[in-house]
Amino acid sequence: MRFEWDERKDSMRNEYDLRKLKRRPGKVRVDGSAAKIPVSLRLDGSDLALLKSEAEKRGIPYQTLVGSVLHQYLNGELVERRTLEALKKLKVS
Fold first, then answer.
1. How far is residue 4's CA from residue 30's CA, in Å, rounded to a whole number?
2. How far apart are the two ends of the chain, measured CA to CA in Å?
3. Which of 54, 65, 73, 75 is least enclosed, having the fewest CB within 10 Å?
């Protein structure tokens, strides 16, 4: 029995002959600042649940949301709620 996937694989093999590919000379260069580094974190279960819920609302993986939040924080783009509330109070006064 053959499945549709088998037919697509055969079609791709006929279309793309990987034996014709040549290796680039020299070592592979990787920009360390652009590479994603796997890390292990311990988070409160409730925080992780909130992250996953927010990520689902936005339609993105929760790891992407975590990376985005960290990036924004480290670049001074996130403002704490308390700071925002204090600024609002100053503006009203």
1. 37
2. 77
3. 75
Could you tell me the CA-to-CA distances from 19 to 9, 15, 23 in Å, in that order? 16, 12, 11
Q: Is 34 inside any structural domain?
A: no
Is pLDDT above 90 for 28? Answer: no
**Distance (Å) of CA 13 to CA 4, 6, 16, 18:** 14, 11, 5, 8
* pTM score, whole prediction: 0.55
Q: So what's the pLDDT on residue 70?
A: 92
Please give the mean pLDDT across all residues of the chain.
83
Structural domain that includes position 59: 43-93
